[in-house]
Amino acid sequence: MTHVNLLPEGAPEGDKFDKMRARAKELGGVDENFIRLLGHVPGYTEALFDALVRSHSGGNVDHKLKEIIRVQLARQAKDPYFGSLRSKQAAQEGLTEDRIEAGSGDFEKDDRFSPAEKWALSYARLMYTDPKKVSKAFYDEGKVHYSEAEIMELGGFIAFHYGMQVFTRAIGLKPAKA
Questions:
Q1: Helix crossing, 136-145 with 115-129: angle to 10°?
Q2: Which pTM value belongs to this model?
Q3: Domains of the chain as residue ranges with CATH
Q4: How many other C-beta atoms lie within 10 A of the C-beta of residue 81?
Q5: How far apart are CA 70 and CA 125, in angstroms?
């Protein structure tokens, strides 16, 4: 049960919210309850939903890697809402639950991850657990694998998604029943 009441199913009403619901169902990384929670402030719903979708599905960084990072962050934030949802796009591209699990575990020693993926997964973990290690030397290492634009994409993605996960955990949001 959330600490704030969700709007009734189907609310807020309107074509733009119906499109968000359809897109959420298609993607799988967010669901109806996110829209019903944020629907108390419709303008925020649109902006935050758009930012979630763009940051997760768009850009130049591999979507499967972003999905692994998204779940790693949800577990770090102890967020059952985002931690239980899975990207349908990433699954269609071949991402397995085993690889998601590995990305939340001892990925540094896991040969299934490239050096670039290990750096990105470390970036996600360190930004909140040990930010002093996210230094110039750390970014210089990242530049071996990613362009500066991709590093900014990853940083923005990590910051935004972790923040949303802390929020949904604090509010007590649970996934909609399928």
A1: 150
A2: 0.95
A3: 15-57 (no CATH), 63-171 (1.20.1290.10)
A4: 25
A5: 11
